[in-house]
Each structure stands twice: as structure tokens, then as C-alpha cells.
Amino acid sequence: MVSLIEIQREMQDLSNWSIEENGNAIVKDLSFSNFKESIDFVNKVAEVAEKHSHHPDIIVNYNTVRLSLTTHSLNSLTKKDFEVAREIDKL
Hints:
By secondary structure, this protein is α+β, with helices and mostly antiparallel strands. It is 41% helix and 21% strand. It is built from 3 helices and 4 strands, in the order H-E-E-H-E-E-H. The radius of gyration is 13 Å and the shape is globular.
């Protein structure tokens, strides 16, 4: 788990992520031109997730994608969530 100060520090390095209300996850909403672009992006996220063995919750709604990262086993944020988010930001 990470402290509130660490979370604030980590959030500064991320692009357009926010902390979920309960503070247990970080989320990002993305928009694409169409469904195919959304799915292409999700497939790239899947590769990042597999590489890190850390998988976000993903919601696809036609041309929008919502990613949510948390460490499910701890029901909290950990450094792993921020590592994966930073790599997703590079896509």
C-alpha cells in the first residue's frame, strides 16, 4: 500500500488519471473515433497488463474506454498500479 503523500506524488506523473472517490483506485477515461480504435487500445493495454501481471478493470462503451487500476488483493493502491498507469500513458 502507498501513503496519501505517495499517492499525491505519483499522481503528478500521470496524464489525466484521477483517484476514485473511495481512494482505492485510479481511473482514466479515454475517447476514440470509433469502436475499433477503442478495442485496438484495449488490446495494447492488455499487453502491458500481461507484462506486469497486473490487470486493470476495463469498460468499453463504443468509442470510450474507462480504465480502473487497484491492487485487488489489498483493496488498495500500490506502486504496481502507478507503474502500470505510467506505461499505459505511453501508449
